[in-house]
Amino acid sequence: MSKPQLTEAVMFFAPDGSVSKQMFYAEFETLLDGLVKMPVFADEQVRAVYVVISGRLQIRSAVFFYLDFDEDGAPDAGWNIPLQQMAERAGRGPDLGAGPIRLACRSQCPVSWHQMHLWDPSLVPGNNDLATLRDSVRINALGILMQEEEAPAVAPDRLQVAPEDQWYAVDPSRDLAEKLAERLSHDYRQKAAQLVRQQRERLAGLAREHQAELARAAAQSDSQLAELQEQIRVLRQALRQQEGLNQSLKSQLAEQLVVQQSEREEMAVRVRAAERHARTEREILREQFDEELRARIAATQAAGEEQTRRREGEAAQRGASQVLERLAAQGVVFVVFHPGAGHLTVPLQDVDRYLASPLAYAASKCFVPESQYRQWLEHYQRPRCEGLQADGQRCDVALERVETPGRFVAGESSCCMLHKAARLRTVG
Description:
This is Chromosome partitioning protein ParA. Residues 181-252 form a coiled coil. Keywords: Coiled coil. The chain is α+β, with helices and mostly antiparallel strands. Among the domains are: 1-148, no CATH class; 334-428, no CATH class. It contains eight helices and ten strands. The chain has helices at 25-32, 83-89, 129-139, 174-329, 351-356, 358-365, 370-381, 417-427; strands at residues 6-13, 19-24, 45-54, 59-68, 91-95, 100-104, 123-124, 127-128, 334-338, 342-346. The protein has a six-stranded mixed beta sheet, sandwiched between helices. Strands 7-8 form a two-stranded antiparallel ribbon. β1 and β2 (19-24) form a beta hairpin. The protein starts with 5 loop residues before the first strand and ends with a helix.
């Protein structure tokens, strides 16, 4: 009789309880060796099952285990569960169509130190992981070659009918097998008891660690609470200081408002006084203008009379020139005085030019044009601002006298600071 054909495979469960991925065990070993990756399981812990399948697509053994994947979809490099050995040493499980299977899971683990890496299948109706596993194997998505049904090893009349979980041929060594099974069951019970003790000790250790962690968390919370209370105290103190500062600023602002109101009233009084003073100055300027007008008229009349007298004396001038020449020959010097030029000695040959225009002659000695000299002379004789007020009247504010014509600048030296600034703005 030929040995039954068995196939090893690994199936991966999705979170919804369905089988999402299947592969032969040889492919699974390639995955563990790092030759391939499964990005679909990246950074997840996946539920997987190692199954041994007969040639008639019936499950003979099953090991339910966890497998962790990193962020690249590669399995945990430290994973080392001996699936094949655990399947051979597994205890009996439910009948999935070919008699009781060998089952290894968290609650039935033949190797205690691997228990934490196994998981228990759900047996809830409608969400039975074993039934899902059985149906997935029957679909045969892996394409397993099915084996024809073998001929019975014994004649039908020699078979003994027994319950399904006792369908075994009559064997003289049955008693030995039962004793071995009883001993193995005893060993498993001892291992289970040992596992329970280990789990209790582990739970007690975890409880102690949890209490210690709670104590540390409480201490840290108290420290943080004290720190927060200190921060609140500091903030409240800063708030009180800020409120005091705000109150002080409000008081200062109120005082400043009072001072500004007083200054505003004082300024209004000054403005009214300045307006009255301006009216007085306008009257003075009008009187000065009238006086200057009368003086100019008189000067014009005098100039006319002088011109008349000059015409009358032109005849005598020729004789006077002869007299001047005789005087110059005798060493007589003609000296005149002009502001800005001082005392000037007029040579005989310059007497006519001087007599024709004394101011032009004095301007040439000061090295300035006659117009500048005339303006300076007017300023020198009466140093007052010639700027115009808004009402058209002259400012007439007293100015510092410019002593020399060369330093005199028309429009600046003859203006006060106010009208000089206004002139600069107009020019700019």
